[in-house]
Specification:
Elements lengths: L6 E9 L10 E10 L2 E9 L8 H7 L3 H4 L5 H12 L3 E4 L2 H14 L10 E3 H8 L8 H7 L10 H21 L5 H8 L18
Parallel strand pairs: 1-4, 4-5
Antiparallel strand pairs: 1-2, 2-3
Length: 206
Amino acid sequence: MNINFAEIIVFDVETTGLSPVDGDRIVEIAAMKIRGTHIVDRFHSLINPGRALPPEAMRVNKITEEMLADAPKAAEILPRMIDFISGGCVAGHNVRFDLGFLCYELSLMGRKLNDITPALDTLKMAKDLLPYLSSYRLAYLARALGITVENSHRAMADVEITVQVMMRLIEMAQEQRLCDVGNFLTQFGVEKPAFRVIQAPQSSLF
């Protein structure tokens, strides 16, 4: 199947820190579903993480405890994310980071992504297609591709940038006659993190 006909769900999470296994949690998740150059759906929610927010996290994403106090818990939102992904391919910039949080949080509620759900990494695409860049940070990469960056470090803003970056990188790959979804995943895909599915009690927050 041509990559232009694939359903791709580009997503991003904002978190309390860098490691879900060390207690960090998702505080915001956003996703856009695309087919070819068309955006067909969006998904977004703040998430109450059940723990205090470190000052360094608040400085980065500007999400405060007040903003999250009445937000839904992960157990309410993330199963809806599974439904949103459905049979599509997930994608993101350095997508293993976001998948690590998503898969770990799902494991805490006895859920997981479908084993056959593939994952595409725009960071891997950029390093392959643009090997001369000095940085592959999302904002730098976007500007290198002529994409305007006004906001970042919020989930939906980063998703919108990533979608534009991915569409441009797909065009570049097609110029090299790389069009087949299977070949795309072989070259630019990553393995999903594996966590043992467990059932943990849901704590109340703030």
